[in-house]
TrEMBL record:
Protein's recorded name: Maleylpyruvate isomerase family mycothiol-dependent enzyme
Organism from which the protein derives: Lentzea alba
GO CC list: plasma membrane
Top-level lineage group: Bacteria
Lineage: Bacteria, Bacillati, Actinomycetota, Actinomycetes, Pseudonocardiales
Any one GO molecular function term: isomerase activity
Pfam families: MDMPI_C, MDMPI_N
Length: 255
């Protein structure tokens, strides 16, 4: 998977790619995959997320200050132009990367799921930016390309963070996924990325590698990322086994 320095660099690179796709865009259009937000609000969401992580790392907080996260307070962002938001967006990404590179990645500050904050937030902000870059390009109808190494890390982070979060956050909705013989295999066809999600116990357990599962989803790694993040249907990907379990799994596991 990506190392710490690469993730710090990707925060800047992915933000720059997002910004470049906005050239000439009407920021008032709705974003189909984040239907409560306009393009204007989505861009501000990404920038505020970067600034929140930056604040936590620079202030070396011991606990995550959720009340200082402005990434959900977006109603006031209307009528802005691309020239208003792009410099601000790029500045925030560069500042966050700089802050992360200035600390020990294993420093136990702003811990996320018990993991060292710098390392965890470098990964979270990389893939937060990746996914919302896709939202932007999809809304504008422009091409989206993603390096397979980055996509593999995005998929890995989803199994490590989004998956357990869904079971913790929505226990009643995710409980029907658990049971004897239940498992999901995600198999990338264009790089070495395979994950088996074992659903036979009280909570999901993820293993890397090739195993027989109740259902397998195969395809290019970027398409797998879009499927698990509910950005695209599984149509066109290969499904082997219990398709109903896969549909239920993708419907109930959200982030």
């Amino acid at each position: 998977m990506l190392d710490y320095e690469r993730r710090c660099a990707e925060i800047i690179d992915q933000t720059a790619l997002l910004a470049s796709s906005l050239d000439g865009a009407d920021l008032s259009i709705a974003v189909p995959t984040t239907p409560d937000w306009t393009l204007n609000q989505l861009v501000r969401h990404v920038g505020h997320a970067h600034r929140w992580a930056d604040l936590m790392i620079r202030e070396r907080v011991t606990e995550i200050p959720y009340d200082r996260n402005g990434a959900q307070q977006l109603a006031s962002y209307v009528g802005e132009q691309v020239s208003d938001v792009v410099p601000w967006l790029l500045e925030g990404a560069a500042s966050l990367s700089e802050a992360l590179l200035a600390v020990d990645p294993d420093l136990m500050i702003a811990t996320l799921g018990g993991h060292p904050g710098p390392r965890a937030w470098s990964r979270r902000m990389t893939h937060e930016t990746v996914m919302h870059r896709w939202d932007v390009t999809n809304a504008l109808g422009v091409a989206f390309d993603l390096d397979a190494e980055v996509a593999r890390d995005t998929l890995s982070e989803w199994t490590a963070l989004a998956l357990p979060y869904a079971f913790m956050r929505w226990p009643a909705e995710t409980a029907p996924l658990l049971g004897p013989g239940r498992s999901v295999h995600l198999h990338a066809t264009d790089c070495e990325a395979e994950f088996v999600i074992d659903l036979t116990g009280a909570a999901p357990v993820v293993r890397q590698g090739h195993e027989k599962a109740a259902v397998a989803l195969r395809g290019p790694v970027v398409e797998l990322v879009l499927a698990v993040y509910r950005r695209r249907p599984v149509d066109g990907l290969e499904v082997f086994g219990d398709a109903e379990l896969l549909d239920l799994f993708l419907d109930r596991v959200r982030f």
